[in-house]
Write a structure and sequence with these properties.
Length: 309
């Protein structure tokens, strides 16, 4: 499920701990026969909602140490928790009607779940974030983050278009200059050759976890549905999110965000192969639409913080 999927588990743990505060939440997973590491488990570090993350074999030997009435077991390989019903090389078949966190919470009878993941940074990680921001003279709430790139290895259909991202950055910079604002635009995400003009490049400068600190200190965040969007919610950051109609809107749309989505007849196709309609759903999201949504969310934040143009 990747790092974003890992954060969905933290959303489940948050809700379980709120509902059953005296219980210990234990996440159990099946260890890979290839003995690969589970990178996504790094998001669980320091999370006080989660008592233990353990593979099934080890759990078999240590389970008697725990009183079964004092724990809640979450089997991370149980398909009831997972937001897809079927995964092939060509497409994903998604569950519909609920957010991914709510789908996981349904297993435990939790309705009206809090739709927010959780990540807790260590002191060292926060120090690294502060040092990086200081080296680029980036002050809290005086920059916005964007991530224009996406994981093409999963699907080529989630992405917007590089020329539109560049037009958006140019318009935002003109807007900030025209309003005598010192707001900067910071590009975040993994290493990439696609660095936009007019941004401060922080790609590949932090771990995924540390990126939460960059997002937490930003004014807002603009990107696709994906790992950093889940991370921005864990960091308590409202943003503008472009959601491909390859998946159901409600599955990954956090209510705090402005979620841009094209409601086409072919929605929820789940295609992992190139779209035969050349990403019509993403083409329908215009630069004007994203620009106006960005202005709107910044105006809302202006009323909630000391930020002003």
């Amino acid at each position: 499920m990747g790092l974003g999927g890992g954060l969905i588990w933290t959303g489940l743990a948050r809700n379980l701990k709120q509902r059953f505060p005296s219980r210990k939440i234990i996440l159990i997973y099946k260890k890979s026969i290839l003995n690969r590491s589970f990178e996504e488990h790094s998001v669980f570090n320091n999370n006080d909602d989660i008592h233990l993350v353990v593979d099934k074999l080890k759990w078999f030997f240590i389970r008697r140490r725990f009183n079964k009435n004092e724990i809640i077991i979450v089997n991370m390989n149980d398909p009831q928790y997972i937001y897809c019903e079927k995964d092939t090389k060509e497409k994903m078949t998604y569950k519909t009607g609920r957010h991914a966190i709510q789908i996981a919470c349904d297993v435990h009878g939790i309705t009206n779940a809090v739709l927010r993941p959780k990540i807790i940074l260590s002191k060292e990680e926060r120090n690294n974030v502060n040092a990086l921001l200081g080296s680029f003279s980036l002050n809290k709430l005086e920059y916005i983050c964007i991530e224009p790139n996406f994981k093409t290895s999963f699907s080529p259909n989630k992405g917007w278009f590089q020329d539109r991202w560049q037009s958006l950055v140019s318009r935002l910079n003109e807007y900030f200059t025209g309003n005598n604002s010192n707001i900067k635009i910071v590009q975040v995400g993994p290493s990439t050759d696609n660095i936009l003009s007019g941004v401060i490049n922080l790609t590949d400068r932090t771990s995924f976890r540390e990126a939460a600190g960059i997002l937490e200190n930003a004014l807002t965040f603009i990107s696709y549905e994906g790992g950093l969007t889940h991370l921005s919610q864990a960091a308590g950051k409202k943003g503008v999110v472009l959601i491909s109609a390859m998946l159901p809107r409600e599955l990954m749309a956090y209510p705090a965000n402005i979620n841009l989505y094209s409601d086409l007849d072919c929605k929820n196709c789940g295609l992992k192969v190139p779209c035969p309609k050349e990403r019509e759903c993403m083409k329908m999201i215009t630069v004007d639409e994203v620009f106006e949504a960005s202005k709107k969310i910044m105006a809302e934040l202006r009323n909630e913080t000391a930020f002003s143009f």
